[in-house]
Amino acid sequence: MWIEDFFSLVYPRICICCGNSLWKSETVVCTLCEYRLPKTWYHLDPDNPVSRIFWGRVRVESAASYLHFNKGNRVQHLIHCLKYKGRKEVGIWLGSHYGNYLKHSPLFRSTDLIIPVPLHRNKELSRGFNQSEQFGIGLAASMQLPLEVRSLYRTRITETQTRKTRFKRWENVSGMFGIRDPARIAGKHLLLVDDVVTTGATLEACVHTLLTVPEVRISVATIATTRN
Fold first, then answer.
1. How far is it, in rounded angstroms, from Cα 79 to Cα 93?
2. What's the pTM value of the predicted model, to 2 decimals?
3. Which of 52, 98, 109, 155 would you label with 66, given CA atoms 20 to 30 Å apart?
């Protein structure tokens, strides 16, 4: 106990949102900031704005996002810390919390495997990790499901999607994913996970690729959505 107290003085544990000290039972985000996060509750509604992104474009069983993403809000800060400051624990924490909601949702209860949207190998080596995989790690732990990171892969590096139109985003990712060892996922209900969904172009490209595997069903979950 005294060793823990000593390290908390030298390396204080602080909330990544507000900067206040964390209690011993808290990790990454304090209870008050977690309560104030702008949750969507889309996992309870099959007819939600994230689900509608895919209507008429690709077959998705269910789709939801944990949080609303708006410029300057807590969610943008959390995702910035995850993607650009190497705070992998943020993705795991978000996945763990959202998984506790999804495992009780009738829309996601039949999921068999969790598959993160992959980064190209060179980009992952440069960044050091895949932020979607960290989210998936947290989901897998709380939902008690396997995490599958080998089957879906990126065939080439793409330009950033930021500031691209919906059509340009689709052009950027069209045909850029592949499947290895499809027998590993055949006949499964897959939960495809990513950090932020805007137009859904990247997720749509992933779904098209995954649907080439016999008898798979696919649902989608992301940390955040830009759609309200």
1. 12
2. 0.89
3. 155
